[in-house]
Amino acid sequence: MSNSISFDGNMMIVEPSSVDKFFSFTNKLTIPFNNIVGATVDKGIINTFKGVKRPGLSISGHKWCGVFQLDNHKSFWNVTNGETPLVITLKNEKYDSLILGVNNAKTFESLINNLL
């Protein structure tokens, strides 16, 4: 598991695991529910071109951790190959989407979408 997701009031809090905090240059992301468009599990996203890394870590075919920009779309990735990626689409935030490896990705997908 690369991340933990929790909820506090009307905020979603994403915390990368200990080592991933270092490589992603991110300690914690706090996102208001109003800025979440939706969530989906997308196992195929691992095989797509991520864009330019700015900053972060990319071990091709294995681990993506940090900010990636493709055209005008800025995404925060923290997922390892073999994890089920949860894609959270955002609006009015620093990132357009979060691609996260979490335990019980389908459960979080349903939970997030039901909170909106």
From TrEMBL:
Origin, by domain of life?
Bacteria
- UniProt protein name: Bacterial Pleckstrin homology domain-containing protein
Native species: Apilactobacillus xinyiensis
Query: What taxonomic ancestry is recorded?
Result: Bacteria, Bacillati, Bacillota, Bacilli, Lactobacillales
